[in-house]
Amino acid sequence: MLGQRALNRALLERQLLLRRVDMSVSAALEHLVGLQAQAPMPPYYALWSRLEGFDPRELGRMLTDREAVRLTLMRGTVHLVTVRDALILRPLLQQVIERAHNGAFGRRMNGVDPARLPASVDELLAEGPLTARELGRQLVERGIGRDIEAVGNATRMYVPLVQVPPRGVWGAGGQAKYARLESWTGRKLEVEPSLEDMILRYLRAFGPASVLDMQKWSGLTRLKAVFEELRPRLTTFRDEDGRELFDLPDAPRPSPDLPAPTRFLGEYDNVLLGHADRRRIIPKDFPWEAMLAPGRFVNNLLVDGMLRATWWIEREGNRQATLAVRPYRKLSRAEHAALAAEAGRMVDFAAADVDRRDVRFEPAVD
């Protein structure tokens, strides 16, 4: 049996959050099976907290040199992955991605046949990258559907489109414009990617985990039979509620007593979204609404390995940047000191272009 703290330490170890590691950006992206990337900055925060001497320009270079891409993958959400993983993961997750679109926009598609989209999208992108809205508008003008937003969203769900630079590049910015994955990279999607390999990689980065955990992380369903086929290659445990957890026999499972450092994470970091039962990392009574800051992207912060605070950066042009921290429950003196020190390092990293940088603690939310 593995308790919540043992599961927590195993997760932190595999997510490279117990200590910063000496690993290349490419190797880290593939070990973590990509990084959540709805917004441009969270992948940079994620790697800064995981890698020794992380240089954000290296990740930006990988995007501009077409070694990494941003596209819709797990759970129908945007992830940043290596090109090699994009070509493997996208075919495995295509049904998940289409299901996500149908749930949000299905009734607004006016009976559009998705089979019409790839050829039409390719014709439109022949002149260069376009935004989803531009794609939607031009497809509607061609008589494909009537709802620009729904049709535009469908283009990146039914066609493997990537967000092209400067979107997501450190120190740059811009709208999300799209190109087809194969034309952008000059490589073809994998014809028969291995679902078994994907499960093993998931366990390497997120285990020990249940079948339901893997399904929640990926968006895939009916994986029990695949886990059963893999059972001879795996080891099993039970959690405190008796659920069966699968793992790789040689995967690290550190002592529950191992200290865990303060870690600043981005919005929707991998470590928070990898399981159906998230009690190993998120307190079950965490007050999400009270921890937000209206009008701002709010990031997450681990204290002793658990989600214990949110944070954001307030900028005044290039003059002043303040990193604000809102704790959940009162911090001990030692926790406050460790958090303040790491916050200072984070604001120096995230707002290096600003003349003055500061850290502010909001009142704790009980």
Beta-strand percentage? 15-25%
> How would you spell out the order of helices and strands?
HHEHHEEHHEHHEEHHHHEEEEEEHE
What coarse outline follows from CA principal-axis ratios?
Answer: globular
For the record, give the distance between the C-alpha atoms at the N and C termini, rounded to a whole number: 31 Å
Biggest β-sheet, characterized? Answer: 6 strands, antiparallel
Oligomeric state of the chains?
single chain
Helix content: 25-40%
**Structural class from helices and strands?**
alpha+beta
The tally of domains stands at 3
Low-confidence stretches: none
Tally of strands: 13
Describe the protein's architecture and organization.
The protein has 366 residues and is α+β, with helices and mostly antiparallel strands. It has three domains: 4-185, no CATH class; 195-247; 282-361, no CATH class. It is 37% helix and 17% strand. The chain has 13 helices and 13 strands. Strands 1-3-2-5-6-4 form a six-stranded antiparallel β-sheet, sandwiched between helices. A five-stranded mixed β-sheet has the order 9-10-11-12-13. Strands 7-8 form a two-stranded antiparallel sheet. Strand 12 (320-327), helix 13 (333-350) and strand 13 form a beta-alpha-beta unit. It is globular and about 65 Å long. The relative contact order is 0.14.
List the helices and strands and how they pair.
Layout: H1 4-14, H2 25-31, E1 35-36, H3 42-48, H4 56-64, E2 68-72, E3 78-82, H5 83-105, H6 117-125, E4 130-131, H7 132-141, H8 148-158, E5 161-163, E6 177-180, H9 181-185, H10 195-206, H11 211-218, H12 224-230, E7 235-238, E8 244-247, E9 263-265, E10 299-303, E11 306-316, E12 320-327, H13 333-350, E13 356-361
